[in-house]
Structures are given as structure tokens and as C-alpha cells.
Amino acid sequence: MASPQETPPSNAPNPRLISLQQPEKLSKILEEDKDDCLACRLTGAAAFIGLGGYIYYSGKTQLTARRNEIARKSGGMGGVRARMMGTGLLSLSFVGMGLYRLVN
Predict the structure, then answer these.
(1) Which one, of 52, 57, 53, 55, lies nearest residue 97 by Cα?
(2) Over the chain, what is the mean pLDDT?
């Protein structure tokens, strides 16, 4: 007499084993890993904001120290202003990324 809970034949594949052999979808993994802890956000934000501040300070210091040399090589003060704008934009970008990291 057969028991009420019959076991499948031994040659039938185990459904749990098949599901373990298939990789998870990337979209599902990214959705589960959406939230970061507060310490991770603060550390990432501080790193980006600190890097932006360092780029601004270091760039401005170097450009003011070498202003005459840069102006002489570029043929005027346009080269110095362009580099100052580039340094400012780069540092502002890093500060923006830090603020975005803090919020999201």
C-alpha cells in the first residue's frame, strides 16, 4: 500500500536543486541591495566632499603660486582663468556627488 506522501522517483530532478543551479537576475539583486547603512552614506559623502575641498584648495594654491609662469606660457591671463574655472568645476562636481551620496 502506498503512503499518502509518495516520494518522486529517484531519477526525477529535484526542483530545489534546479533553482539553486540558476543564477539570480541582476535586477533582483540590485533591487535588494538598494539601501545602504547610515555609516556607509556618511563615509562616502565625507570622502567626496573632502576630495572636492582638497581639489579646490590645492588647485587654487598651485595656480596662484604659478600664475605668472602660466600667463607667460599661455600668452595672457586667459589660461589662468580657464584653469581656475576647471578646478572650480571639478571640485564642485565632487562636492555635488558627495551631497548626492548623502541623500540617496
Answers:
(1) 52
(2) 83
User: So what's the pLDDT on residue 12?
Assistant: 61
The percentage of residues in the chain with a pLDDT greater than 70, rounded to a whole number, is 80
CA dihedral sign, ordered 8, 11, 17, 21: negative
Give me the residue label for grid cell 606660457: 73
What does the alpha-carbon distance between residue 55 and residue 94 come to, in Å, rounded to a whole number? 9
Residue 3, number of CB atoms within 10 A of its CB: 6
Please name the residue that has the C-alpha cell 571640485.
Answer: 91
Classify residue 98 by burial, with Cβ atoms within 10 Å: 0-12, 13-18, 19+: buried
Q: Please report which confidence band the pLDDT of residue 74 belongs to, taking 50, 70 and 90 as the band edges.
A: confident
Residue 84: other Cβ atoms inside 10 A = 16
Cα–Cα dist 65/104, whole Å: 38
- Model confidence at 80, pLDDT cuts 50, 70, 90, reads confident
